[in-house]
């Protein structure tokens, strides 16, 4: 059984930075694909950024490209989402996800992930 626990969300102002953490228990992240998704009120869950360990492939959604990075600390079995220059439209519940993904093209699909965290709220005020 794998458990993912996100933390680091909160209320920030536009232009601020925030780093979210996702700690895993029960399984190592080291060979998994990991990603961050988000869901704003009244909207569908959307892909933010993901990393496939095999080949070191990372992809970010156009809406956040250049403002977010994903990183891992395999020793701590933790994945991070660093978000800079936050905008009010970044307000959402952020979820981390992990799974064994065979091809990088599936990195953006939430159906490709086996494990999900409970989410952490990020609110950006203007």
Mean pLDDT: 92
Approximately how much beta-strand content do the residues carry?
over 45%
Kindly report how far apart the N and C termini lie. 40 Å
Net shape: globular
Element string (H = helix, E = strand)? EEEEEEEEEEE
Index terms:
126 residues; mainly beta; 4-stranded antiparallel β-sheet; globular; 0% helix; single chain; 7-stranded mixed β-sheet
Please describe what this structure looks like.
The chain has 126 residues and is mostly beta strands. 0% of the residues lie in helices and 50% in strands. The protein contains no helices and eleven strands. Strands 2, 4, 5, 6, 9, 10 and 11 form a seven-stranded mixed sheet that branches. A four-stranded antiparallel sheet has the order 1-3-8-7, with no helix packed on it. It is globular and about 40 Å long. The mean pLDDT is 92.
Concise description?
With 126 residues, the protein is mainly beta. 0% of the residues lie in helices and 50% in strands. The strands form 2 sheets. Strands 2, 4, 5, 6, 9, 10 and 11 form a 7-stranded mixed β-sheet that branches. It has a 4-stranded antiparallel β-sheet with strand order 1-3-8-7, with no helix packed on it.
């Amino acid at each position: 059984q794998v458990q993912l626990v996100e933390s680091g969300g909160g209320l920030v102002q536009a232009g601020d930075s925030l780093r979210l953490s996702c700690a895993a228990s029960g399984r190592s992240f080291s060979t998994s694909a990991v990603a961050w998704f988000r869901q704003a009120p009244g909207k569908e869950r959307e892909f933010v950024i993901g990393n496939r360990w095999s080949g070191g492939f990372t992809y970010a959604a156009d809406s956040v490209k250049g403002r977010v990075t994903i990183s891992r600390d395999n020793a701590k079995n933790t994945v991070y989402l660093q978000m800079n220059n936050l905008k009010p439209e970044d307000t959402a519940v952020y979820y981390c996800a992990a799974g064994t993904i065979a091809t990088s093209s599936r990195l953006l699909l939430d159906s490709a992930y086996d494990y999900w965290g409970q989410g952490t709220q990020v609110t950006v005020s203007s």
